[in-house]
Specification:
The complex is a heterodimer of chains A (290) and B (321).
Chain A (H helix, E strand, L loop, with lengths): L17 H26 L31 H37 L1 H15 L3 H12 L3 H12 L1 H15 L2 H8 L4 H37 L11 H12 L5 H28 L10
Helix pairs in contact in A: 1-2, 1-10, 2-3, 2-5, 2-6, 2-8, 2-10, 3-6, 4-5, 5-8, 6-8, 7-8, 8-9, 8-10, 9-10
Chain B lengths: L1 H28 L4 H6 L8 H11 L5 H13 L5 E2 L4 E2 H36 L4 H14 L3 H15 L18 H34 L3 H8 L4 H38 L5 H10 L3 H29 L8
Antiparallel strand pairs in B: 1-2
Helix pairs in contact in B: 1-12, 5-6, 5-8, 5-10, 6-8, 7-8, 7-10, 8-10, 9-10, 10-11, 10-12, 11-12
Classes of the chains: A mainly alpha (290), B mainly alpha (321).
Protein name (chain A): ABC transporter permease
Membrane topology (chain A): Multi-pass membrane protein
Subcellular location (chain A): Cell membrane
């Protein structure tokens, strides 16, 4: 009898294909941003309230690559600190929102029946609320602070996770291996722990990652409106707001530099998340569905 | 259809109610004291007796449920309250500004729909072509730009560097009324910025669904009959893709409202968004709560309307509740 010859899976070689250049670039940008954010307080500490009135509105130069604003503060330096805050807020808020959404979606998907219908209809209705206005309301009533901003993001961004978790659970429940586990006498807790969670967790992690850019935009929007961090603290939104003032005097760099930082980092996160999604679920076509 | 409306209301009304309770509790837990806010600097010279009388008159120290029911009752009777920052009737503040916000959102929506349908269809027809790739790359780039930043960039280029359009406001400072041409000139930049920031999502959706319906049998049959390419593309492929698109417009309205808040603030337009930000900065509960609730109710109604239109246009579809 002839050997059943199966083609051996070829080892992946480490060579960049054309589609990977963007991913590599995104990974480098994100790694650089995180490293810079972590290392900044050690290597390049910032005095948040320091001003230099002899050095105001300087265009970008070698000494100040991001220029200086109308109080003589270094644009690049403050953007770095603003990015730290934005990423921190984005990460924490995305995790909190994921926990809320995971619980709601989990309850709906596991129970099924009328609790599922009711919860999902409530989710649909809440997702129709104008979330920036609600976020503004929450922050305005709690007084602007880091905690209020995080709460405002978490309370308005948990809906997509609830939908993802619920639909995943519903589709998993009908799969044969769950029937097999039930037939084998596995308890509900065991089915959840051994069979359902391993399938869902990567998707939840992906949903959290995809939410970070949204959380960052929400935070910068609130800060831009003056409803985020206190104005003297460096935050990307605050800086763009300050830059609006300088813009009319011709100092374009004061708002362009922090904005470019937001765009680069959120685009990098979104691109990496999209690539991750392709790997998780190759059936879904690569699409940066933000 | 009646059933759909009834089932929608069965959820929407409790959610609106819960939203109002949540907002009221947040407002009540806020450190702002409405009596002190009303008195302003005079609070330091007013005698404690007078302040106490003011508080008693307003009932600010009544138990929470009493205050909530009074507030809700007044809202339902059309009394929206008294703005603590603008010292004006809330209804008057909203009435004077709602029209401009509706105008901004309406024109923007029309531009977004027309632009994304046209460009998305052409991109789908020439999949993988230069236009398709360019549009998609541009869409991803724009999606990651905060709309207020886009607005500032537009001001820097088109008002400051080129001087084509004014940088803000609704009318020229020398104007005495609101002339149509003057307002239109001032609205070009805000509408463009808001439309550009909202288009990517619609554009990508149209492109994908038209690309999919181009593979359908009825499109193939139309081709086989020898119909012109344009007729097939717009008359058959786009038409199939159009229906699901319309219902998604309703679900995207909250984004548009959020964008209009930011755009109005950057361009200093006298709309609801800009005034709600001012109210938020002054912790003006009556004004902010009224705007948030009214906008929420309007978005929910618009959503219901798009779904009704969808079921009317396509009898095969039964939207479940």
């Amino acid at each position: 009898m002839a050997d059943l010859a199966l083609a051996r899976p070829r080892r992946r070689t480490l060579r960049l294909r054309s589609g990977h250049v963007g991913t590599t670039l995104a990974a480098l940008v994100l790694a650089g941003a995180v490293l810079a954010g972590l290392a900044a307080p050690l290597l390049w500490p910032l005095d948040q309230s320091a001003i230099a009135l002899d050095n105001i509105a300087q265009p970008p130069s070698l000494a100040h690559p991001g220029g200086t604003d109308d109080l003589g503060r270094d644009g690049l330096h403050r953007s770095l600190y603003g990015l730290r805050v934005s990423l921190l807020v984005g990460l924490v808020a995305a995790v909190v929102a994921t926990v809320i959404g995971g619980l709601v979606g989990g309850i709906a998907g596991l129970l099924g029946g009328w609790p599922d219908r009711l919860l999902m209809r409530v989710v649909d209705t809440i997702s129709a609320l104008p979330h920036l206005l609600l976020g503004i309301f929450i922050v305005a009533m709690l007084r602007p602070s880091l905690g209020a901003v995080i709460l405002s993001i978490a309370l308005t961004h948990w809906l997509s996770t609830a939908r993802i978790v619920r639909s995943e659970l519903l589709s998993l429940r009908t799969r044969p291996f769950i029937d097999a586990a039930i037939a084998g006498g596995a308890s509900r807790a065991r089915i959840l722990r051994r069979h359902l969670l391993p399938h869902i967790l990567p998707k939840i992690a992906l949903a959290t990652t995809l939410m970070i850019p949204h959380a960052v935009w929400h935070e910068t929007s609130l800060s831009f409106l003056g409803l985020g961090l206190p104005p003297h603290l460096a935050s990307l939104g605050n800086m763009i707001n300050d830059g609006q003032r300088s813009l009319l005097t011709g100092a374009w760099w004061a708002s362009i530099v922090p904005g470019a930082v937001i765009v680069m980092v959120t685009l990098a996160i979104a691109a990496l998340a999209a690539r991750w999604r392709d790997r998780l679920d190759p059936r879904v076509r690569a699409e940066l569905n933000l | 259809m009646i059933k759909l409306i009834r089932r929608r209301l069965a959820v929407a009304v409790p959610v609106l109610f819960a939203t109002s309770v949540g907002m009221f509790l947040l407002g009540a837990s806020s450190p702002m004291d409405p009596a002190m806010q009303y008195a302003g600097a005079a609070a330091f010279t007013t005698s404690p007796e007078n302040m106490a009388e003011l508080r008693a008159n307003w009932g600010v120290d009544d138990p929470l449920p009493v205050r909530y029911l009074r507030w809700l009752g007044n809202l339902l009777q059309g009394d929206l309250g008294w703005s603590t920052t603008r010292h004006e009737d809330v209804a008057a503040v909203i009435g004077a500004r709602a029209g401009w916000t509706l105008l901004l959102i309406g024109i923007t929506l029309a531009v977004v729909l027309a632009g994304s349908l046209l460009l998305g269809t052409i991109a789908a027809y020439r999949r993988g072509g230069l236009l398709d790739r360019g549009l998609r790359a541009g869409a991803y780039a724009v999606e990651s730009m905060p709309v207020f930043w886009l607005a500032l960039a537009a001001i820097a280029v088109f008002s400051l560097a080129l001087g084509w359009f004014p940088a803000g406001g609704l009318t020229d400072v020398r104007a005495t009324g609101t002339g149509v041409g003057d307002v239109a000139h001032h609205l070009v930049l805000p509408v463009t910025v808001l439309a550009v920031s909202q288009t990517p999502w619609f554009l990508l959706f149209v492109r994908d669904s038209v690309a999919e319906s181009l593979r359908d049998d009825h499109v193939l049959a139309a081709r086989a009959r020898g119909l012109a390419g344009r007729t097939v593309l717009f008359g058959h492929a786009l038409r199939t893709a159009l229906l699901p698109f319309l219902t998604l417009v309703g679900t995207h309205l909250p984004e548009l409202v959020g964008g209009s808040v930011l755009v109005e603030t950057v361009f200093s337009l006298p709309g609801l968004g800009a005034v709600s930000v001012q109210a938020a900065l002054g912790s003006d509960f009556p004004l902010l709560a009224a705007i948030t609730l009214i906008t929420t109710a309007m978005v929910l109604t618009a959503n219901l309307a798009t779904d009704l239109a969808y079921t009317a246009a396509d009898p095969r579809v039964r939207i479940d509740g």
